[in-house]
Amino acid sequence: MATNRWIYAKSVVDNAVEHYLTDPHSEVAKEWIIRAIAEPDYTDNDGDDLYFSYVPEIKKWIRVVVSGDRLITAYIDRRPMKWWGIPE
């Protein structure tokens, strides 16, 4: 099952060329997005799949929004630091 999540995560990012050309949050590295989808720290669903992941490289949280197999957006989110802090 874990391998399938990594394959799915990579396919979402590989199909997201337009995200990197048009999204103002393009400072979020592809590797971080893949990791957030494959091994999220927290998930939620508000009609779209929300993946939250702490990125130790930048000491911040990112939020990745996916609908089906399409990346909607990925950005640095300040609120999870208040909610969850830094994961152990």
Average pLDDT, to the nearest integer? 87
Unreliable stretches: none
Structural class: alpha+beta
How can the largest sheet be summarized?
4 strands, antiparallel
The outline comes out as globular
Approximately how much beta-strand content do the residues carry? 25-35%
Helix content: 25-40%
Count all strands and give the number.
Answer: 4
Order of strands in the sheet with most strands:
1-2-3-4
Order of helices and strands: HHHEEEEH
How many DSSP helices? 4
Could you explain the architecture of this structure?
- The protein is α+β, with helices and mostly antiparallel strands and 88 residues long.
- It is built from 4 helices and 4 strands, in the order H-H-H-E-E-E-E-H.
- Strands 1-2-3-4 form a 4-stranded antiparallel beta sheet.
- A hairpin with a 4-residue loop joins strand 2 and strand 3.
- The mean pLDDT is 87.
